């Protein structure tokens, strides 16, 4: 029923108290202020191979190594004496890598900003269109565009930079796309 949290020596919490506060969900972690929590205080960039010192401060492994080479062998923030460079904090490293992948994916999400065109095929979360087909009168994200590059029957289709309102760019009389320049 009770357990000890090691980072607060001799402080006991009940399991019910822990579960009431609940662990952070990944969406909560994703919304953290990366500048505040995931930035090395030496190089002021997102951690690369983060190491956590005995005093609990985290730095990039190279940053801490160079700091210890050229300064005294103490934590740059609190001056606690360090006997060695800690091993890479693999949990923090993996979280940072996952957040980087997530932010890269978010770059392709359609936001409605000027110049953006949504993929007409995506269901749910829409992605930005990479090309528009003047024959299909449809705009495609990179995932849905693959079919146009691989299917023989679609070889003759004219792909152009993404265009908004493709339906309005078709000739109603002939059922063909208007010429875009």
From TrEMBL:
One MF annotation (Gene Ontology) recorded for this entry: zinc ion binding
All residue ranges annotated as the RING-type domain in the record: 40-79
Keyword line: Metal-binding, Zinc, Zinc-finger
Protein origin, superkingdom: Eukaryota
Protein name: RING-type domain-containing protein
Species name: Mastacembelus armatus
Lineage: Eukaryota, Metazoa, Chordata, Craniata, Vertebrata
